[in-house]
Amino acid sequence: MVVTLLAETSLFELAVPCAVFAGEGYDLVLCATAEGGTQRAPGGLRLTAENGLEPLREADLIVVPACMMDGYAPPAALLDALREAHARGARIASLCSGAFVLAAAGLLDGRPAATHWMYAEELRRRHPNVRVDDRSLYVDDGSILTSAGTAAAIDLCLHIVRGDYGTAAAAEIGRRMVVAPHREGDQTQYAPPPAPAPPRADGVGPVLDWALARLHRPLPIAELASRAGMSPRTFGRHFAAEVGVTPLKWLNQQRLARARELLETTDLGVDAVAERSGLGSADSLRQHFHRALSTTPVAYRRTFQGGTPQGLSGN
């Protein structure tokens, strides 16, 4: 298998495949993509590989780590080598923003592909034929595999080991690296909640401020419209034009954001979090978390607080 060294590459995403695959039944080779075999890295480091792109001609697995996003253009020789490898049946995996390299080679056209949630819109803009998945930690589309950012690179590499050598092998590597061999949920739980629209004195901004202070209680659309001095239908039209979503969707987004904040910063139990965020009951809170974040309130708190605080109950 081959790991490519990209110009200005991320050291973490470069180190992950080296840590996972070295000595685990894989013949690991590093290949430089620049003449001279030396690539730059953050902090003034220089990375040197003995090989150029030649090993890509025979590799059955190629991993492309993250690339720097500011003006990086993959070398034409690398793109050609990736296309040729794919045409002969090699598996090709990208980590984080490495998806931009695969997209530049045309390997993601018409395919689902993951990347870091921060780069998802940019990937859509640059490569509209790619079916960008900004929720999944990684996507396995047969011979093409892509991952989200940073720790998701570990998830994808362990997934590859699990497919090649079984669950026990992946679990053993996870124990050695002190990471979970398989994580629940997706990357939506790590992306920040959508910020409320900025207040506007001549629009619905004052109503948003009023509602944000009262998320814990019922807020029927008719009441919001009345405060804005509009009929519910007119209010809904003005609201969608200003905020970009319906009033009901906005309320659910802000209540979920409040619940996330409470789980991250307090020891309140699930019932109390549901009540204070306006999501009703613990069951309703769990349903919202599952639908929006693919996880549970308990798992979310464990991720961001590192344990189960006293008084937390339920799932």
Q: What report would you give on this structure?
A:
This protein is of the alpha/beta class. It has helices at residues 11-21, 76-87, 99-104, 120-126, 151-165, 167-177, 205-212, 221-228, 232-243, 247-265, 270-277, 282-293, 297-305; strands spanning 2-5, 29-32, 38-41, 45-48, 61-64, 91-94, 112-114, 131-133, 138-141, 144-147. A six-stranded mixed beta sheet has the order 2-1-5-6-10-9, with helices on both faces. Mean pLDDT is 87; it is low at 307-315.
What topology does this entry show?
Blueprint: E1 2-5, H1 11-21, E2 29-32, E3 38-41, E4 45-48, E5 61-64, H2 76-87, E6 91-94, H3 99-104, E7 112-114, H4 120-126, E8 131-133, E9 138-141, E10 144-147, H5 151-165, H6 167-177, H7 205-212, H8 221-228, H9 232-243, H10 247-265, H11 270-277, H12 282-293, H13 297-305
Parallel strand pairs: 1-2, 1-5, 5-6, 6-10, 7-8
Antiparallel strand pairs: 3-4, 9-10
